[in-house]
Amino acid sequence: MPESIFIIGATGKVGKTLVSQIYDKGDTDPLHRRNPISIVGVASSTSFLYDPDGLKETLVRDFASRSTEGIAYKDPIRLVDLLRASEDSVTMIDVTPSQDMLALHRKVIEETHHKIVTANKNPLVQSDFSTFQTLTANPKRYRYRCSVMAGAEAVDIIRDMRDLGEIPTEITGSFSGTLAYITSELEAGRKFSVALSKAITEGYTEPDPTRDLSGTDVANKILILVRTAGVNASIDDVKIVPFIPEKYLSESDPSRLLLRVREIDEDMKLKMDNEMKKNSTFKYVARFVMGEDAPEISVGLQSMPRDSPLGQLRGTANKIVIKSNIYKDRYYAVEAPGAGLLPTAMNIRRDLLYQNGDR
Ligand SMILES: NC(=O)c1ccc[n+]([C@@H]2O[C@H](COP(=O)([O-])OP(=O)(O)OC[C@H]3O[C@@H](n4cnc5c(N)ncnc54)[C@H](OP(=O)(O)O)[C@@H]3O)[C@@H](O)[C@H]2O)c1
To answer: Which stretches of the chain score pLDDT less than 50?
Structure first.
């Protein structure tokens, strides 16, 4: 019996890559996979296709590449209602950046027997802690590894540690490919405005680069990890110091932003030169420390030796460093590409492997 999936966001960059990988790698082929996948639904923000017996490959590929449209819809809850009568469970895959998906995630988990795999961080951050716990309680029904570090081992190791009674005493990480790239370019002597311009041209930044520079995306990621560790926290508990002064963050147009930030080129250069003289550097770091009274969670620029676990990072690489009583004076670290369509799509398929009982 194939495992049914419904991809919401199938016309997006991650969604389209996922559709191609599923077919090209043989996930739908019963000779290749013990539990083959059947795509029963695909949706964009405005239309969907659904067939409980499985959609034809050509139709799904055409939908993903926008060569064909589906049935118009407005409220994503409609997509859950389509599945409710279905006896077999369906995994809804949320690869949208939508702020309006929490209600759908809740409905699937609380009111149906269906499942969720998500790369969308928003529902995990917008929910209160108790809802977060309800959503994520059963990893066979809700998986979210791709919300942090494009699905590298961050969420899963912390969840396993929590379930084994090992709460991390400290988590530090570099979770933004964009900000990692910019600091790496500053180390190489490039001007800040030039590094930012290259990050935009290379497609590392969000369409509005101030979303990276504000630190909120990194704050969302550390919050997801801290909650996964079992700590009751909300976004208001994260102290966020943006990468650049607040006054530039209202400029969402990339070309106007690039002109304006030239005035901080000199400051950034001086700051980095001072670090380099001490054989240190600065990185944009997310940090959680399990304090005696309350957890401390922060994101911001931090000075560190160049040979330290995060100080060594180059280019867009992301890294998580976890300390816990069990590791004593050592630590657990994972370095991986923090973004990228191919690893993200593969890691969504990994979540499906675990969810569908292949692991
Ligand atoms: N890019 C990466 O490397 C990466 C890595 C890890 C995680 N992620 C996460 O993956 C998600 C998707 O990223 P992306 O780069 O693929 O985004 P994208 O290219 O902008 O694609 C967004 C997709 O979501 C659909 N969508 C938008 N709002 C929706 C809504 N309200 N209801 C239903 N569908 C909606 C869009 O439909 P239309 O075609 O109709 O607009 C499109 O199919 C984001 O949450 C992102 O943070 C991305």
So the answer is: none
How far away, in angstroms, is 122 Cα from ligand 1 center? Answer: 11
Q: Which amino acid is at 44?
A: S
Q: Could you tell me the residue ranges of all domains in the chain?
A: 3-151+342-355, 170-337
pTM over 0.85: yes
- Which tokens belong to 85? 């009568």
Does the CB atom of residue 347 touch ligand 1 within 6 A? no
321 neighbors 307 (Cβ within 8 angstroms): no
pLDDT digits (tens, 9 = 90+) for 123-141: 999 999 999 999 999 999 9
**CATH of span 3-151+342-355:** 3.40.50.720
Q: What is the SS3 assignment for 86?
A: coil
Confirm or reject: Cβ of 58 under 6 Å from ligand 1: no
- Of 176, 183, 138, whose CA–CA distance to 283 is shortest? 183
- Edge-to-edge strand ranges of the sheet holding 37-43: 71-72, 47-50, 37-43, 3-8, 90-94, 115-118, 142-143
Q: How far is CA 308 from the centre of its chain?
A: 25
| pLDDT at residue 326 in the model | 93
**Structural domain 170-337, CATH architecture:** 2-Layer Sandwich (3.30)
CB of 9 sitting under 6 A from ligand 1:
yes
